[in-house]
From TrEMBL:
<dbReference type="InterPro" id="IPR006680">
    <property type="entry name" value="Amidohydro-rel"/>
</dbReference>
<feature type="region of interest" description="Disordered">
    <location>
        <begin position="453"/>
        <end position="484"/>
    </location>
</feature>
<dbReference type="InterPro" id="IPR032466">
    <property type="entry name" value="Metal_Hydrolase"/>
</dbReference>
<dbReference type="InterPro" id="IPR011778">
    <property type="entry name" value="Hydantoinase/dihydroPyrase"/>
</dbReference>
<keyword id="KW-0378">Hydrolase</keyword>
<dbReference type="InterPro" id="IPR011059">
    <property type="entry name" value="Metal-dep_hydrolase_composite"/>
</dbReference>
<comment type="similarity">
    <text>Belongs to the metallo-dependent hydrolases superfamily. Hydantoinase/dihydropyrimidinase family.</text>
</comment>
<protein>
    <submittedName>
        <fullName>Dihydropyrimidinase</fullName>
        <ecNumber>3.5.2.2</ecNumber>
    </submittedName>
</protein>
<keyword id="KW-0479">Metal-binding</keyword>
<dbReference type="Pfam" id="PF01979">
    <property type="entry name" value="Amidohydro_1"/>
</dbReference>
<dbReference type="InterPro" id="IPR050378">
    <property type="entry name" value="Metallo-dep_Hydrolases_sf"/>
</dbReference>
<feature type="domain" description="Amidohydrolase-related">
    <location>
        <begin position="52"/>
        <end position="442"/>
    </location>
</feature>
<dbReference type="GO" id="GO:0004157">
    <property type="term" value="F:dihydropyrimidinase activity"/>
</dbReference>
Length: 484
């Protein structure tokens, strides 16, 4: 038998739902063996004594180098995002291809592939649909799907991205036809708009009023509605960035009825609070994202939903806006009203350290749950589990050597992103990635990038088991066109 090209020796390997001291042998960029005392002749040996060996993180919700409707583009490129992802132990990204109302998706998809090919990290895309015209859904979407896109993203809020219920139904039906997963941003657009106008009219314009404009009830209502419409057409969905337990309850009810509904949350809903948006000066703008961070008292409820499995994925929702600069949070001035501040915060590199520290180190979740939430489940829901998300023979050798005892205070420099701040500045974490291996090559060691530009690979995805409908329609009636 041929030897291994790389052997990661003597670490505590998280595999098969457990953790045991053993070696990982790599051949041809894939995991060839997980076992004790693997032969090392001719192999590069990486000593992992005292370290955890984890599957590389899979982040299925990050906004990288995304063109915006105002003609600008996110500051974070696929190259800088690769640095940041590897620095935080993530080896796979699923990002977004935009659609602008009145525009198509095919050219956007091709351009996105070109941009992503310059980076060092393996990647796939969700296709955003903001305007489900027949030309887009019947002509362009099949071509994008044929190129390996297996998921759609729908926004139920934001000007100018949001869909009406009729448009959302079109997206769900198209997804069902092609076997795609649908990911949804759930907030009630009209309710938010009404509250925004009322707050602004009352002179309540500071960053903290972002949270007042979109309290949990608008997220809960839209989550209920999205799930109900998905049930109507028998289409699996994942609810993105669930901010608190009262919203997750909607998902729990759907799951209890046997529906294929999954929930994702993000570190910002586990450690940031609405009070952060009330920091002095314009500092609160650094924490503006949607849904808004909630009260500190909500965090434990969200952890409980992660333990129960109601929420099965923790993503970053990384969003490339700096604080300063002409594309940053303060682009409209340091006295801009909350509705004129770009939504979204950076968190690519912070995702795994925060979840490990707040979760595993503090005893809220065990290591197996950490691995499931950050790698195995996101890979499974994305239809990538044949390559990513676990340590098992045949899968890509994406590995993170993790020092569970290392104590680090988060700083912006450690994030290695293109953004000029981190909302987690000063947060103390216990547990840190010391080496990231991507497809059998050491991509980052002690924070130093070793992977060359252009080494990231496109991950074509097929229709997956997770996206397959249940075969359960009201009255058994398969609604055919005309679409609403
Ligand atoms: O505020 C956020 N989350 N911005 C990113 C876009 C989105 O809603 O996912
Ligand atoms: Zn969103
Ligand atoms: Zn997002």
């Amino acid at each position: 038998m041929a030897g291994y090209e790389l052997v990661v020796r003597g670490g505590m390997v998280a595999a098969g739902g457990g953790v045991r001291r053993c070696d990982v042998g790599v051949r041809g960029g894939r995991i060839a063996a997980v076992g004790e005392e693997l032969p090392v002749e001719g192999a590069r040996i990486v000593e992992a004594d005292g370290l955890l060996v984890l599957p590389g993180g899979v982040d299925t919700h990050c906004h990288i180098e995304e063109p915006q409707s105002d003609g600008s583009i996110h500051e974070e490129s696929f190259t800088t995002a690769s640095h940041s992802a590897f620095a935080g132990g993530t080896t796979t990204l699923v990002c977004f291809t935009p659609q602008f109302k009145g525009g198509g998706i095919l050219e956007q998809h091709r351009a996105n592939r070109e941009r992503a090919a310059r980076g060092m990290i393996d990647h796939s895309f969700h296709q955003v649909i903001t305007d489900p015209t027949p030309a887009v859904m019947d002509t362009e979407l099949p071509q994008v799907v044929a190129d390996g896109v297996a998921s759609l993203k729908a926004f139920l809020t934001y000007d100018p991205l949001h869909l009406t219920d009729a448009e959302f139904l079109r997206v769900l039906l198209a997804a069902r036809r092609h076997g795609l997963m649908v990911h949804v941003h759930c907030e009630n657009h009209d309710a938010i708009h009404w509250r925004q106008q009322a707050l602004l009219a009352a002179g309540m314009t500071a960053p903290k009023y972002h949270a007042w404009a979109r309290p949990p009830v608008v997220e809960r209502e839209a989550t209920h509605r999205a799930i109900a419409l998905a049930e109507l057409v028998d289409q699996p969905v994942q609810v993105f960035h669930v901010s608190c337990a009262e919203v997750a309850e909607e998902i729990a009810h759907a799951q209890a009825r046997g529906l294929k509904v999954w929930g994702e949350t993000c570190p910002q809903y586990l450690v940031l609070t609405a009070e952060d948006m009330d920091r002095p000066g314009f500092e609160g703008a650094k924490f503006i994202c949607s849904p808004a961070p909630r009260q500190a008292g909500e965090h434990e409820g969200t952890w409980e939903m992660l333990r129960r499995g109601t929420l099965s994925v923790v993503s970053s929702d990384h969003c490339g806006f700096s604080f300063g600069g002409d594309r940053g949070k303060a682009r409209n001035g340091r006295d801009a009203s909350f509705d004129a501040i770009p939504n979204g915060i950076p968190g690519l590199a912070a995702r795994l350290p925060i979840l490990f520290s707040e979760g595993v180190s503090k005893g809220r979740i065990d290591l197996a749950r950490f691995v499931a939430l950050t790698a195995t489940e996101p890979a499974r829901i994305a239809g990538l589990s044949h390559r990513k998300g676990a340590i098992a023979p045949g899968l890509d050798a994406d590995l993170v050597l993790w020092d569970p005892a290392k104590e680090v205070t988060l700083t912006n420099a450690l994030m290695q992103h293109a953004i000029d701040y981190t909302p987690y500045e000063g947060l103390a974490v216990k547990g840190w990635p010391v080496m990231t291996i991507a497809r059998g090559e050491v991509a980052m060691e002690q924070g130093r990038m070793l992977a060359p530009p252009g080494s990231g690979r496109w991950l074509p995805r097929d229709a997956s088991e997770t996206a397959r409908p249940l075969g359960r329609l009201p009255d058994g009636f398969e609604a055919a066109p005309p679409l609403p």
